Amino acid sequence: MARSQPQPTKSKSHKASDDLQVERLHRGYSQSMEVTKVLADENSKFQHIRIFDTVANGRVMTLDDIVQITSRDESAYADMLTHLPMLEHGKVERVMIVGGGDLSIADEALKHKNVKEVVLVDIDGQVIALCKKHFGEINAKAFKDKRMVIEVADAFEYLGRKSSKNRFDLIIADRPDPVGPGKALFGETFYDRVKGALKPGGYATFQTGVPFYQPWEITEALQELKRFFPKSGLYLSVVPTYIGGFMALSWASKGGKPLGTPAGIKKAAAAYKKAKLKTDYYNPAIHAAAFALPNWIAKLVP
Fold first, then answer.
1. What Cα–Cα distance (Å) separates residue 219 from each residue in 49, 204, 208, 248, 301?
2. Pairing with 194, which of 99, 160, 204, 236 sits 20 to 30 Å away (CA)?
3. Active-site residue 124, yes or no?
């Protein structure tokens, strides 16, 4: 999972004590987790990686002290970025994941039997290695699946390759914070490259922040998507450890039908039943409800 830093003010998280991890992602608000065991605490070339067990939230990974994934609520994020567009599309064969080194999203995509290839491109191989070691409950099947392709590379560069052009039916951007190397995964050039790598009729999904604390992210992201894609929009999930309530997920289509129409929702429900997917968060009712926006969020949509 990935989370966006608040923009215009940023505050760093810190560990309050040996057994308490405190995250101060949003100004004036924090969350803390009681740590029972630290499994990894090291610096890669790109970031500080920490994996630990907690009393209330299962196993957790933080990058630069910001919570990325917990074993308790990862499905609310991974399921909705993956199954919702895949079931409405109906014929997804090739998926690309930007980031996603914990492989939780890849694991969900591989549940679809018609998928021929899932390509995960993450710049930090150390994250992938540590998640393979410590998050086997979530990703063991994905690592063993012959359809899984892992590329330790710059996803921005990978999207621009000739071999990526018109290749993917679905691109899921589980991108990191817009700082350092992650800056390349935001803005006009990134969206243009995503569009180029999608097949006609393909979809892309993006994490778009927590609107309660980061309202500008919805407006800015959708404005940029509209410049490159004929159709785009917003839907919601709720990930408890992504503090602030609703998590905004945006989508864009390269010539495909809009997501979230009555026909699309009906099609997804039939496909879900036929595929007999085993999911912890996603179901057809949640799919339909995800497009119902509270008034204050709907006002953020340009």
1. 31, 17, 10, 11, 6
2. 236
3. no
